[in-house]
Specification:
Elements: E1 2-7, H1 10-23, E2 28-33, H2 44-49, E3 57-58, H3 66-84, E4 88-92, H4 96-107, E5 112-117, H5 127-137, E6 141-144, H6 147-155, E7 162-164, H7 168-176, E8 186-188, E9 194-196, E10 202-205, H8 209-212, H9 215-226, E11 232-235, H10 241-250, E12 256-259, H11 264-273, E13 277-279, H12 282-291, E14 295-298, E15 313-316, H13 320-327, H14 345-359
Parallel strand pairs: 1-2, 1-4, 2-3, 4-5, 5-6, 6-7, 10-11, 10-13, 11-12, 13-14, 14-15
Antiparallel strand pairs: 8-9
Helix pairs in contact: 1-7, 1-14, 3-4, 4-5, 9-10, 9-13
Protein name: UDP-N-acetylglucosamine 2-epimerase (Non-hydrolyzing)
Keywords: Isomerase
GO molecular function, one term: UDP-N-acetylglucosamine 2-epimerase activity
């Protein structure tokens, strides 16, 4: 079987790292990188440290509005699909790359297989929600990470195409999270120079436009971080670095370490060793859950309801008092609660692809 896999953003690279290694034992995979994440630390470094096969196609498409990016990607991916004539397309998650690839394949009558199907926030102001809903409804095989994903697809009459496989992000965390120790990490500071990881620290990731697009929201997040009892390590997304540096200077921040983006192995190590985590990332809140770390997610909607059990993850608004109050809530960790699978999602994904091929 010939499979074209399309990725474009760092969470997709992590999932592809575990799935591609299993897939290529049995089948031919053509890997396409759209270029949606193009910075070295956001893209190339992930391919290197996770030993992801070099992309067969690198489309170099990033920037512009959602429509511009999606349209350019569709045209480029269509050319790849026409040239390669795959038996199916494999896509991950909910990015513009995901939707563009799914639309291009569906219009060419190529079966679309969607990993992380059924995830819902029920907030259509969130562009990723539109991407994931549209991708699910044009996919031939829906591969759910959680039981709640299966339930959502049943509600939308998609259950007959859905298979519960678990979360390949959990596979990756099990395999890679202990590759580094804190002493192995050297942070590249936005102010210049390098720094080691503090002995005790909090880990902040914050990149979404709703939290970083205005001074007022990011100021509130910084106010909360400044009041914590240990330094806060904040690797800053490239598009937010100018604002973060300016606000840090204006607010005379002393507790927040602004750094360049880090690779997956470094990030997973920091998740394991942080006191607590503050994020607006769908991926990082799951990794905090995998590591048993208290997490506060700065979003107005639940992305992964499974992580919310026992106060292990709480939503907060970009408001200093709210963030601090949620961080103070005690979490309850039940070791036998494993809603994201058993760490073998990659094998189950490939098995589902094989079964689909046999039944066509």
């Amino acid at each position: 079987m010939k499979v074209v896999t399309v990725v474009g953003a760092r969470p997709q690279f992590i999932k592809a790292a575990v799935v591609s290694h299993v897939l290529r034992r049995k089948h031919q995979e053509i890997l396409v990188h759209t270029g949606q994440h193009f910075d070295y630390n956001m893209s190339e470094k992930f391919f290197e440290e996770l030993d992801i096969p070099k992309p067969d196609y690198n489309l170099g498409i990033s920037g512009g509005t959602h429509a511009e990016m999606t349209g350019r990607m569709m045209m480029a991916i269509e050319k790849v699909l026409l040239a390669e004539k795959p038996d199916c397309l494999l896509v991950y998650g909910d990015t513009n790359s995901t939707l563009a690839a799914a639309l291009a394949a569906a219009k060419l009558h190529i079966p679309v297989c969607h990993v992380e199907a059924g995830a819902r926030t029920h907030s259509c102001t969130n562009p990723e929600e539109l991407n994931r809903i549209c991708t699910d409804h044009i996919s031939s095989l829906l591969l759910a990470s959680t039981a709640s994903g299966m339930e959502e697809m049943e509600k939308e009459n998609l259950g007959e195409r859905a298979v519960l496989v678990g979360d390949p992000m959990y596979d990756a965390f099990v395999i890679y999270s202990r590759k580094y120790k804190p002493g192995d990490i050297s942070l590249r500071l936005l102010s210049g120079g390098e720094s080691s990881i503090p002995d005790a620290f909090y880990y902040l990731t914050c990149h979404r436009e709703e939290n970083t697009g205005r001074d007022a929201d990011l100021q509130e997040i910084f106010k909360a971080m400044e009041q914590l009892d240990a330094p806060v390590v904040y690797p800053v997304h490239p598009r937010n670095q100018e604002r973060a540096k300016r606000l840090a200077a204006e607010m005379q921040l002393k507790n927040i370490v602004l750094a360049e983006p880090v690779g997956y192995l470094e990030s997973a190590c920091m998740v394991l060793n942080a006191k607590k985590i503050v994020t607006d990332s769908g991926g990082l809140q799951r990794e905090a859950f995998f590591a048993g770390k208290k997490c506060v997610t700065i979003l107005p909607f639940v992305v992964w309801p499974e992580t919310m059990a026992g106060n292990r993850n709480n939503l907060a608004s970009p408001d200093a008092e709210d963030i601090l109050a949620k961080l103070a809530l005690e979490q309850v960790v039940e070791s036998d609660y494993l809603p994201f699978g058993d760490g073998h999602a990659a094998e189950k994904i490939v098995d589902a692809l094989d079964e689909m091929a046999e039944n066509r």
